[in-house]
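User: For my dataset I need records formatted as: sequence, then structure tokens, nothing else. Please produce one.
Assistant:
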Amino acid sequence: MQRDASTRPSLLLRVRDAGDEAAWSQFVAIYTPLIFGFCRGRGLNETDSSDVTQEVLKAVAGALPRFQYEPGRSTFRNWLFTVVRSKLNNFITAQARWPKPAGQTTLQQFAEVAEAGSDEEAWRREHQSHLVRWAADQICSEYKEGTWQAFWRTSVLGQDPEQVAGELGLSVNAVYIARSRVTSRLKEVIEALGDPLDGLEGFAHA
């Protein structure tokens, strides 16, 4: 019998067990695109972003067993940000000592990264958008197309529920019910990570 999601250990608790390779693989699959995208958004090229991402993952793997999980608080998001910022700063310091060939990250870009690296609000937004979209990918096959479109178009694309209802051949009430059902399931999947969001209200149009 499958246990209820609320009774299963969160992913962030499972990855503290060095023997749980499946948990670490899932963690890497979820968080690598977030870290890589954050680096790219701060001016690093693909190669440099990959290098920094790998350094972050190495640091996280070593530190996670000591990470203190606190349910109900976004402490992991903030902790991960400090690791990402630290590795970005280390990379910038090391690379700034050497001239860069054409096509690689420039000193000007390094300066921009150093400034952007402290942007916690940007990290919060990117973290939230990424986890919502990851969770959406996990659950979209659980719903009929009309139910999913009612949720996606009203909650993510920000379209008017009455317009969506008319185009999908549903009642407005059915659209609201579909949105509520999918949103609840989305929250459940994200909460199972142990990396809670501040709320889902900020992901529309993400």
